[in-house]
Specification:
The structure holds 2 protein chains of 2 kinds.
Chain A (H helix, E strand, L loop, with lengths): L3 E4 L2 E4 L5 E7 L5 E7 L6 E7 L2 E4 L7 E4 L5 E6 L8 E8 L11 E2 L3 E5 L1
Chain B lengths: L3 E2 L5 E4 L4 E7 L6 E7 L6 E7 L2 E5 L2 E6 L4 E6 L8 E8 L8 E2 L3 E6 L1
Parallel strand pairs in B: 2-11
Antiparallel strand pairs in B: 1-3, 3-8, 4-5, 4-9, 6-7, 7-8, 9-10, 9-11
The chains are: A mainly beta, B mainly beta.
């Protein structure tokens, strides 16, 4: 089945220790998104890639960066995690938003990040 | 005022009940409306997608959009314990970079 895969499902890191979260997709979608979701809150978009074009949200801290080496993979790098960065990180994909079906986003299972 | 308002619940209903979940929004530019279901510690799963106003039905689920009132609803008929989850509404407008704007979610508990 075509899907969005996130690894690891659970990640524990120490305050200030860099961490990388991984997302891969078999849907061959143009767009890949990273969201942060804290407990009982709505997912908050951090940034997204449309193909190789990176689009950062204005309020995303500099501490968060992303890489997309190819169509299938996208990474979220947190350079110096703080206690406030503990959250579920969700990866999503969609077809190009100017294409049929491009408004529908498909989510992975998420990576739950704990910062000690 | 948040762009999308959604009652957090929890909403508890007996098995077999009809469930009504709702969101209101403030931005009339939203054109695309979605409902996601999110089980505990899992990613959101797309349930329903509608464009502009009107109704859409898929099995036990019906989505309604009333753009004049800025109000959307999700109805679940014959609710089952497996429907117990958090339901997130989300909406989108091309004017705002095609970003999904989510409600905070309503927790639904269906008791057997």
């Amino acid at each position: 089945d075509a899907m969005v895969i996130q690894n690891p499902r659970y990640q524990v890191t120490q305050f200030g220790k860099p961490v990388t979260l991984s997302c891969s997709q078999t849907l061959n979608h143009n767009v890949m998104y990273w969201y942060q979701q804290k407990s009982s809150q709505a997912p908050k978009l951090l940034f997204h890639y449309y193909d190789k074009d990176f689009n950062n949200e204005a309020d995303t801290p500099d501490n968060f960066q992303s890489r997309r080496p190819n169509t299938s993979f996208c990474f979220l790098d947190i350079r110096s995690p703080g206690l406030g960065d503990a959250a579920m990180y969700l990866c999503a994909t969609s077809r190009g938003y100017d294409r049929p079906g491009g408004n529908e986003q498909f989510f992975g299972p998420g990576t739950r990040l704990t910062v000690l | 005022q948040k762009e999308v308002e959604q009652d957090p619940g929890p909403l508890s209903v007996p098995e077999g009940a009809i469930v009504s979940l709702n969101c209101t929004y403030s931005n009339s530019a939203f054109q695309y409306f979605m409902w996601y279901r999110q089980y505990s510690r899992k990613g959101p799963e797309l349930l329903m997608y509608t464009y502009s106003s009107g109704n859409k039905e898929d099995g036990r689920f019906t989505a309604q959009v009333d753009k004049s009132s800025k109000y959307i609803s999700l109805f679940i008929r014959d609710s089952q314990p497996s429907d117990s989850a958090t339901y997130l509404c989300a909406m989108k407008s091309a004017e705002y970079g095609n970003k999904l704007v989510f409600g905070a979610g309503t927790i639904l508990r269906v008791k057997s």
